# Entry
Amino acid sequence: MAQSITRRKLGKIAAALAAAESAGAGMAATQDGGVRGYYRFPNSFLWGCATAAYQIEGAAAQDGRKPSVWDAWSHMPGKTANGDTGDIACDHYHLYKQDIQLLKSLGVKAYRFSVAWPRVVPEGSGPANERGLAFYDRLVDELLSNGIQPFATLYHWDLPQALEDRHGGWASSETSKAFSEYAGLVAGRLSDRVGHFFTVNEFLCFTDQGYGSGIKAPGRKLPDGAVNQVRHHAVLGHGLAVQAIRAAAKAGTKVGLAENARICVPVIESAPHVGAASKAMRALNAPFLTAILEGKYPDAYLLAAGRNAPRFTADEMRAIASPLDFVGLNIYTPTYIRAADSPAGFVELPQPASYPRMASEWLTIAPEIAYWAPRHLGEIWGVKDVYITENGSSSTDRLTADGKVYDTDRLMYLRNHLVNAHRATAEGWPLRGYFLWSLMDNFEWADGYTKRFGIYYVDFKTQKRTPKLTAEYYREAIKRNCAV
Ligand code: GBH
# Structure
């Protein structure tokens, strides 16, 4: 008897499964041209695009904006490709209304932009510049009236030059304090309309690369101990900013960061390698993400740094560990990890010269990062809400005679990352949204305008924007809520 009930139940389950399959992930071609819904995201999934102030705004000396370290750096001979600067960039400061129409036509629900510190507090600390703040009022209001949620980044590398001149920039904790004051000011002004703030974008690029290797602004080459102190002042600035935002912002405002953590991919998905990748994730992100999420620099990091270790107080570590509402990760490249019989328990695998990459030399491809990033955050640190705050690719785009850009390589990159992001949501890892980098071609830092990351092509002479094939793809993915 019991057995036959079980069989009947099993029969019902099988029938339900078959029905579900023909409705969604089935084999038969359907009326919409055989498009299957297998990679469908949760209904609440937030689709977005990302940009950053210095890369798109231009209007570098307008309405009271003063120079940032990037203005100074890009104007020094030989620092950027072709001597390119962000003086004009995409002229978004004037064209923001039409750019918001581009977002609207893609169907994105959210837009991640950054606020230019030197526009809002031109001297780094001290009086606010009303005309600078007013630009972000206009931008936010225009987004909202087009049904797009604003997500604001407070620091995307454009440190006011005045702070570099007065205090040596991030080499001093005065800059961490100035950052938190500025963060509180902006949150106080915008949080009636902006629900999500990111403190800092990508620590490594403005700490190690700005003050160590010196390949990015302000281009200083400090010894290791001083660079570790710069790193510490940066995470401290983040923590103090979290506190300042919470003190100044409307109740319920969400605060997080956008970090380019090393994304550790187990070279084979077997228990030993997965375990090793998880150890590597903590170890390789020790000075930034691990310190922030654990409130402590891992012993191995301090030990390895020896006499060059950062100096810090318990109070500072408590500030650094200020609880976050979400974590954003900018994901581009993988770090392959295998298990090892060493005290660390893992080894980082070098990439062979033949490893595939996109148009930027550094941009090696592994779409699995879109799965492992949210999984590691959920599994290792119990993070509840994760956003992919940047992901995208450069391509050697050409405007063809028919007025189009056929960026099939970027489309391939995007589709495969979305399939892996879908896998993360399907397995229940806490991925809530995806911001594509970038809405349009822009000032790609040291690469100037030679590397294009946009899904809209920008003619920098005429400021004309043209949708690339990937824009069409992204619109379709958003419409179907699906990696198509
Ligand atoms: C992001 O950084 C940035 O947030 C964004 O502003 C930028 O436009 C976008 O990526 C595309 O690059 O010179 O060989 O040392 C991504 C992480 C880390 C990638 C530093 C480039 C320099 C490589 N970046 N890296 S190299």
User: Anything to note?
Assistant: The first strand starts at residue 46 and ends at 50. The CA atoms of residues 212 and 223 lie 7 Å apart. The two ends are 47 Å apart (CA to CA).
